[in-house]
Amino acid sequence: MLDEQLNSLESREKQLRKVFDFKKIEPDCNKEFLKIKLDLPFNDMAKDVPLAFEKFGWYGMVHRRHTEWIRSPVYGGLGLTYNPDYKFNIPKHAHGLGQPRTDVNVRGKDTYDDCLGLRTPTDVTKFRSFKSFFDRLKLQYFQGRFAEVKAADHGANITEENKEFIWHTDEPNEIISRLLVPLIYDEDYWIELESGTKIYFEPGYAYHWDTFKPHRWNFKYHSNIKNRTCIVLGWAPWLELKEGKWSTNQYFNKKHSMDIVNEGLLIQ
Ligand SMILES: [Fe+2]
User: Fold this and answer.
1) Distance, CA 212 to ligand 1 centroid (Å)?
2) Given 122, 144, 188, 200, which is the most exposed site by the fewest CB atoms within 10 A?
3) CA 77, 82, 86: angle at the middle one, nearest 5?
4) 3-class SS at 240?
5) What region does 258 belong to: left with phi over 0, alpha with psi -120 to 50, or beta?
6) How many whole angstroms from 103 Cα to the centroid of ligand 1?
């Protein structure tokens, strides 16, 4: 299916679901979340985070409960991909950081709702040490960001009550799955799953779980807390877009995203 043949209204996900017959399959591996050891230049990557924000900027996430382009001062960063046909005239590195809940005219194809439309890597993926990570991915990535939580700068003003809003779900995992690669963090940050499970980051690991189920990030504020930065990678377990043509890959309807990560098939 050629990308240019898709209609201009519905999201790519919606249209490709009609073209390819997606089946629901269960993972072989029976874990709530996975942590996988990665051999990456983590020290260099951590040092390159502030350099990247200096070079490419920093864009706060636009929350859906807003009707205007109000960017969070707390959670934001840089998009890993952009949509060359985006409906909004905003910088490329901001495409991956949300849009307000506006009228239906700005939903659908080529908006933030169109996760597969965010299909062209931004320059931050080629920047300094980051390139070594993105070069090793065996499946295509769409969506995602370098995501910073500015707990040091704003944490004192964030109450437990307004943290309730950060519970969210991401895309269905057969379309876009996620891998979280912590770069700058400490033991005062964690991810909470609906079951109550808390994921604390350990040096040298990346994390994956079903991000279509409710989850949130959280932290315990103290005066020495650091701002946290992770790569939030949105990758397609079953689809690829090559030379403008959408197709399914060898794992389509056969291998669950959880098993792809578990069996080391995402990263070389
Ligand atoms: Fe998420």
Assistant:
1) 8
2) 200
3) 120
4) strand
5) alpha
6) 24
Return phi, psi of residue 136, to 5°.
Answer: -90, -5
Write the burial class of residue 137 (CB in 10 Å: 0-12 exposed, 13-18 middle, 19+ buried): middle
pTM summary value: 0.94
Domains of the chain by start residue, with CATH = 3-15+35-262 (2.60.120)
Residue 115 CA to ligand 1 centre (angstroms): 14
- Residue 97 CA to residue 15 CA, distance in Å, equals 23
* DSSP summary character for residue 239: E
CA–centroid distance, 216 to ligand 1, in Å, is 7
CA-to-CA distance for 53 and 27, rounded, in angstroms? 37
- Tens of each residue's pLDDT in the chain, 268 residues: 999 999 999 999 999 999 999 999 999 999 999 999 999 999 999 999 999 999 999 999 998 777 888 898 889 999 999 999 999 999 999 999 999 876 555 778 999 999 999 999 999 999 999 999 999 999 999 999 999 999 888 888 877 766 666 888 999 999 999 999 999 998 899 999 999 999 999 999 999 999 999 999 888 888 888 899 999 999 999 999 999 999 999 999 999 999 999 999 999 9
